[in-house]
Structures are given as structure tokens and as C-alpha cells.
Amino acid sequence: MSRWEPGCIDLAADAIGHAIVHSPAGFLTRGEKAFFPLSLDVLKRLPISGQYGLGYFDGLPVMLCEVEAAAELEGYTWQALRPLMLCAEHDVFKMLGYASQIATWAAHHRFCGRCATPTRALKGQRGLSCPACGLTQYPRLSPSMIVLVTRGDEVLLARSPRFAPGVYSTMAGFVEPGESVEACVRREVREEVAVEVQNLRYLGSQSWPYPHSLMLGFHADYAGGEIICQPDEIEDARWFSLNNLPLLPPKQSISRYLIDLYLAQRLGLPEPLLPN
């Protein structure tokens, strides 16, 4: 059972169970932890510009405190979300990912997109409404696909210039308006590495908070073509033997799940579970 349950809750100051603090520089951390007991004294020393009830962790309400600038506090640092993926337990990372998405959404919708009036939070639901024209903005998700392409005991992996040194991963891309996810898989693989795929199988999904993606995971068979990397997007792409894989993404990611699942199926090992 998950320790983290998201939800739109109203929090009075004396109802705080947990508080996490976010700024443009990331989350307030102590050591490597971004989820720890925060005293009211520390919160009072921060220039908090917004507060949002996020949900419940271990049954206690969680409040997100948003600050417009990362203030310096002795004994604390600010940490971006992505590195926290490597050191936080999965339920904590899910909560931080959700908090990051809510913070981004709130910052981007402070004013009405139709008439520029300052928006107001709706009571009892996750929405920002315009008091002048009535337009309501809700947090949005951008559907995207991620796919493992295989050819027998070989997997097609690529690396972006943005990846950590030496890391290769599966290919991914955002769904265009009017496009099915399956069509997106074929198009993105063709664009990124000039390869055709077939026999698409959907395997699962994962929220990907960079900043608001929903990753839909697929497995596809190689159908033809020679690898030609897309300039500026793909630094390198290769066929890797299952017996000689490169550095891979973190275990918590759906990309790693797709690779580990195929590896287990080919080698007769226990199948991994998708972190959700």
C-alpha cells in the first residue's frame, strides 16, 4: 500500500502534518533529504509566496510551501528534483514529483490566460479560476510515449546530450495533437534513429514530473532500417547485446523497467514490477 496519497485538501496553519518547501532552485533539503520534520521557526524564516495542500503521507496532511527565491538557511541546501530520484524512497519521490508539478502549474497560471486577471484558487478542487471571465485552469498532463525496440537478444538504446555521462536509455517523445500514441511511437523512433518498428505492445505508464508528462510505455520489434541519429537530439544510438549493456537509467524509471522486463523474459528471470 502506498504511503503517499495525493488529494486537494484545505490546510489551516494548525493542521500541518508535514511541510515541504519548493523554490525555482528546487526543494529545501537537509543532508540528502527533502522530506523531513520542518519546524514553524524555519518556515517563518522563508519568504513563502503560496501554500497548497497536496494530500496525505502516512495519513498526515502535507502542505507545499512555495517561495519565489531560494533563501539561504544554515544547515539547509536547495536540490533539484532529478537528483532526488536517486536517493529518495519511491513514495517520497512520487510526492515530490507531484509537488513539483503543482508548483509549476500554480506559477504558470497566476494570471488568466484569456483576460490577464489574477486567478484565485477554487475551494475543494485543484483549479485556479478567473474572477473576471470565469476561465478555470486545471493542472495539465502532456502524454508522451517511451519505447524499447528489440531485435532478438539485442536492444536499441540511445543517449541524449542531456543524459549523465555514459548512460543510454530507451527512446521517448511527446504525442502531437491529433496523433495516436501508437503513431507517435513509430514517428519518434523514425525521427530519432531512422528505424521502423512493428508489433507494438503497451506495458504500463508512469508519471514523469519534468515537468508534467505521463509516460506510456511500449515494447516494439525492429522492422527495418539503419541507425541514423537525429542531429541535436540523439548523441549516439546503438544495438546492445543483453549480455553487454551500457550504463542504464535509474531503477525507479519506466525506461529501466522496460529494459529489465525484456532482460528477465529472455533470460527466464523473475519479472520486475513497474514502480508506481
From TrEMBL:
- All copies of the Nudix hydrolase domain together span 139-262
The residues that the entry says bind a divalent metal cation 3 are E188, E192, E233
Record's keyword terms, sorted: Hydrolase, Magnesium, Manganese, Metal-binding, NAD, Zinc
Q: Which residues bind Zn(2+)?
A: C112, C115, C130, C133
Provide one Gene Ontology cellular component.
cytosol
A single MF term (Gene Ontology): NAD+ diphosphatase activity
Task: Give the function comment from the record.
Answer: mRNA decapping enzyme that specifically removes the nicotinamide adenine dinucleotide (NAD) cap from a subset of mRNAs by hydrolyzing the diphosphate linkage to produce nicotinamide mononucleotide (NMN) and 5' monophosphate mRNA. The NAD-cap is present at the 5'-end of some mRNAs and stabilizes RNA against 5'-processing. Has preference for mRNAs with a 5'-end purine. Catalyzes the hydrolysis of a broad range of dinucleotide pyrophosphates.
Q: Which NCBIfam families match?
A: PRK00241.1 (NF001299)
Subunit structure and binding partners: Homodimer.
Family assignment? Belongs to the Nudix hydrolase family. NudC subfamily.
Spell out the protein name for this chain: NAD-capped RNA hydrolase NudC
Name the species this protein comes from.
Answer: Pseudomonas duriflava
Write the gene name: nudC
